[in-house]
């Protein structure tokens, strides 16, 4: 018996070691950091314990800008991407020929490097002295005014960021929703057909309730993912996000830790914990709402 | 409503793409279903009975042939316009709706001049629920009910829109043995109360025999025989039908007819007037054996199983195609056994002979002059 | 007669509506496919345009008649793209390999072995799945810095060799293997370790392959941690390389060369995807549905 216990823990040992050092310990450490005032990374000393780090971060205009950007990004991209993904999945579900091809194509962005493809988006949207860029060309076809989406007005930059984010998260959502739709027992649709159920009613009364758990799952993970947005912004607006006014909360954390304005793990920790609190609150709210509306 | 199937054929492309070719699921089905009857579509799995059901309700288009409801040709009519009620094998109840909402679902789809007020709908739902005796459970969700109760809800949902035809796909297969007996009586009762022409699909011959007005036996997409259950049982058209109906199953032997006499092995067991000399398959119903000393059919006794009212005699015979021959005799019958041998006489009307090659029935004249 | 005509019309309307819907559906799906593929096309197209041709196009051209591979040559000569590439391969192989060594025994212990405290340990593992990376990265950065492991492969690799999620996925897969096999193997005198290597791993190969592929994708695309932990271009991975190229590489305006570099680093994953797309999609949707 004793020997068996030992053996079990022995098999777990490597994983526990790594998780302990790189996940559990940091979890407590980040709390400690966030309360240590005036921490100096060079000498590893601090001169007090308190809420100063939080107060500083919450008053930092860069942080507030990052919070504003992140919230805008979340509020726009989560509903838009989920909605479009639902449309695409419904479309996919209704066809037979070419279905697999479409599905595979749609999933392609999932495996590509966010930074690399972001660069392509940057080129498509950017306006330089030499060229207005492809997107502006199209805007002009339709009689619009060209605008620099990368270095131009705030709304334009926000638009590109949202656009690219939606493009990046779509593969996962389409995949999940398509398999959710495909797993609905076809007998329900046959039964509805026998009962002369109109199309919209099949959708609202059968399809939606049946896949509602997956939709809520996507909304919840979508919120969490969008709150952690970072590399999409980097890809589009380069590493100095504060200068571009397009920083995100996660970007702020990393900037505080390292980079041009870096070297402040305490501020970074405080900001990361604030982000964690926001995400936790919103996830809990989501879960409460889904309890009420998901029918299983 | 009378239903007429005219030369109905359904061909699917083969599922195995490499082999290619096609599968004939239903082949030239020709049948007129009289109004207000309960019809059992019977056959082993893969015989095309479910496809036939899908053709009738319109979920599949036929490859050729026609379907009439009364005088109307509905062959190409979409299912929603046919006025058909369908009960699915797994019931297909909407899990997120209560019993009441499930039953009401078809009514809420009615538009235009058929539109019902809320009161009318509730009235109809109550009626349907009462008919299937689930009016106490209206607020339950399907997951909170037993299989039998779910089955009733499914039937109520199919009936509430007052269909012209009611179709049931393997209605009892998901129930346990005891519920199955109960529910099949229920189906019979509901069908008789409503008088709706009803077709149900099953692979269980007991089920089909016990409640149908008529059964249709199918095999490999081809209708083998149509008729009232007793008639089909007493007068099977071919060896397949004879073997498919009846528990315990019929006993089949390699046999031959010589000089208008049926020989199993070297023993002449029965006179079969009017049949020429040829090798045949002989089939004897378990209840066709009469224990008799010096009887003409002799087999090797294996064991006797007491079943209360009856006794089942298990024996073997070198020419038997089944491992064991089962004969059912009254419990008080005296077995004519000497040593290992047991002998019987046979009831001529419980013995059928079939062409050894095709399995087609070969009729002979019974002694009292009745054609078999 | 009246009803028959009516039926014909109903039939025709239903067929027509169906056809209309199908056409609209295909148009819509094709539009989105173009949306997905266009950036890749543009990337490829730009990478074969010559520097001068690209810069003289005030209105971007949708194709080119004189493709050049000079940009690819530049990508490998003007910036150390080959070095970034090699670094990423080393990083990916080592991280994925080490992770398998760590997670297989852990999943085996959870799925197969009985020992005291297993339930508690598993609960703790599961709850760790909810910890966002952003929280722990700060301390890890400090830890690695203090260990003087910045700009080393060790520093790059160590924090990402465990994944609670993959342990969970693998445990589920191991648990699918019937207990009878284990008992049979024990009766035959097989040790636990032999059972793991000779029975469980071969049977769970599909799941293992899926995990490896997903981890390779993750490694190939990782950006945040490498960025924190390396400032010496000798240790840059492709993501950091791309960013470096963009900011200091060919000069900001040599976009065709930049695109050539982007194509080069994207190709391995796209090939991986084309070969394994069924496995990848099944793995992601399974992970999604369960995670």
Explain this structure.
The complex is a heterotrimer of chains A (296), B (372) and C (291). Chain A has 296 residues and is mostly helical. Chain A has a single domain, classed as MetI-like (MetI-like fold), CATH 1.10.3720. Helix content of chain A is 76%, strand content 0%. In chain A, helix 3 (61-93) runs antiparallel to helix 9 and helix 7 packs across helix 9. The longest helix of chain A has 34 residues, at 2-35. Chain B folds into 2 domains: 3-238, P-loop containing nucleotide triphosphate hydrolases (Rossmann fold), CATH 3.40.50.300; 241-362, no CATH class. Chain B has helices spanning 49-57, 99-108, 118-131, 147-159, 177-194, 205-211, 229-234, 239-244; strands spanning 3-13, 22-33, 38-42, 64-69, 72-73, 84-87, 165-169, 197-202, 214-219, 222-227, 251-258, 261-264, 267-271, 278-284, 289-291, 297-306, 310-316, 325-330, 337-338, 341-346, 351-355, 361-362. A 6-stranded mixed beta sheet of chain B has the order 6-7-8-3-9-10, sandwiched between helices. Chain B has a 6-stranded antiparallel beta sheet with strand order 13-12-11-14-21-22. Chain B is elongated and about 75 Å long. The model of chain B has no long low-confidence stretch (mean pLDDT 88). Chain C is an all-alpha fold. Chain C has 2 domains: 2-47; 71-290, MetI-like (MetI-like fold). Chains in contact: A-B, A-C, B-C. At the A-C interface, helix 1, helix 3, helix 4, helix 5 and helix 7 of A face helix 1, helix 4, helix 5, helix 6 and helix 11 of C.
Short recap of the structure:
The complex is a heterotrimer of chains A (296), B (372) and C (291). Chain A is mostly helical.
Output the keywords.
heterotrimer, A: 296 residues, mainly alpha, MetI-like fold, 13 helices, 76% helix, 0% strand, B: 372 residues, alpha+beta, Rossmann fold, 2 domains, 6-stranded mixed β-sheet, 6-stranded antiparallel β-sheet, 22 strands, elongated
